[in-house]
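User: Methyl-accepting chemotaxis protein, Mariprofundus micogutta:
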Amino acid sequence: MSNKDKVTSTLEQFAAGNFTARTGGQDAMGKAVDKLGLNLETMVEDLLEKQVGNCINIFEVVSTMSRMTDGMSNMDERTLSMAAATEELATTNEQIAGSSDEAVALASQAVEAANMGSASVESALSVLSEMAERARSAMSEVEKLVNFSSDIGTIVASIQRIAGQTNMLALNATIEAARAGDAGKGFAVVAGEVKALSQQTAKAASEISQKIGQLQGEIDSVVTLFSENVERAERGGSAAEDAGRSMQDVIVAFSTVSEQVHHIKMAASDQGEASREIAKRTHEVSELVSHESHEINHTSTQMRELEGGIRGQLDNLSKNQVSRGVLSLAKTDHMLWKKRLVDMVLGHENISPSDVTDHRHCRLGKWYYSEGQQTYGHEDAFVALERPHAEVHRLAREIVEKYNNGDKAGANAVLENVGAPSSEVVSLLEQLRSK
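Assistant: Predicted structure for Methyl-accepting chemotaxis protein:
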């Protein structure tokens, strides 16, 4: 092929987008065309890299705004829930205040009842004290009867002794009268009468003594009963005193309860007003959050449209064949998948596990195990690229599987782990491009 034909063929390839073509000629025209090709290739690579950088930045912004939108939606829901909760709290505080009024009224009634009970206890204590005092007085009088009955018993005993002695004297007089014969008959009659009277006296004294004994037994029983009544009255008085003190404690306790309930009412009223204010402010925050969420959604939509335009430009640029184009496009592919995973977790996109290929069949993988191996196989960055690239694909599949199995939280947790290997892939690609 002549130099002219090589130049013509090379220019035709340039026109078709293959800027890697070279004439290989050593003449001036061939060298000029080859230099033009190198300049065009460098220009396209630089333009592609800039567009890739723009696209990656747009991906990051859109992903961040998508997360912000989701966060704002959650915040809006929570602020609405918080507003509802604070309104319920305000209502509850109002109910507490109303119940506190009832509690104060009941406590006042209890204090009044306790005061009445205390007055009744004091009255009962007075009655019991009076009963005990009267019982003591009666017991004192009965004890005097005991002493009188004892004195009577002593007198009766003296009468019995005198009657006995009289009877003996009458017996002796009768004996002496019998000795005197007829002269003593009159005296014997008198002695017999005296004897009969002394016997009657002794019998009456014995009966009196028996009655006095019975009377003393009854008096002892009465004394015992009065003593028991006094003891009971004293125990009742002691119990009444204890009851009186307890009633006073009850009065103090209910007074304290009434005071505390009043404080609770005041606090509940203040808290109710504060809760109403919080609910009002929370509604305002919710409206603000809703507005901001709408603005973010609008901005996110615009950014997605811009993203679509840049991706279209990248698609057009990717049709041009340049030496390092795959290194730039691989970064775009990589960041695009990361963005798609974020959108999926946020519910904006559906991805099937079959859509996630292994690391050997994506654009970067196909290049890595063919042309890339030939061109950069000796580079440390190229060797190190395989491990994080495979890890990104493994995590991507795990995220998609968890999400499709309903484990959104698990998918979101694994998504957080993609950052490290993803950043390592981008860093290694940039190192290779700088070679």
